[in-house]
Amino acid sequence: MLAKLRTRAGALALAVLLSLACVSCSGFPADPDGTLERVSGGTLRVGVSHAPPATDIRGSEPAGPEADLVREFAASLDAQVAWTPGGEEFLMEALKQGDLDLVIGGLTDSTPWTDKAALTRPYAESTSPWGETQKHVLAAPMGENAFLVALEEFLSGREEAP
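Given the sequence above, the corresponding structure tokens read:
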């Protein structure tokens, strides 16, 4: 009798634990650092490298189709954009360290930065000066899945940019 009671108590405890696990999982996808929540209604911190025609940082504000795309994404989140111009290596490290929310600059799906960034699915294609097809991606922080899902949904609802 005692063995049956222990079995039932164990089964009940397991059911309670599973229920609690399911309730706590309802926030997926999640952002451990709260990127989407912080950016929404706030500031989207974007690193941009000079990579014409996708991005041009020679003016007072970044220009080009990727910069315009970022402005539209920020507007969809009711966010302002804070631009940080720089080289790819610097920007990718800043992204990895949590100082940026997004990096743009003509990145393609063959970028070597996959150890520092989560890349979007290709959202546009262009032809390189050498006649090769390039599939364009954006770089977001690793693990910030809610932010990445919001970005992917935005990109999938758009026509090709570059």
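Confidence is low (pLDDT under 50) at residues 8-26. Try to locate this feature in the token string yourself.
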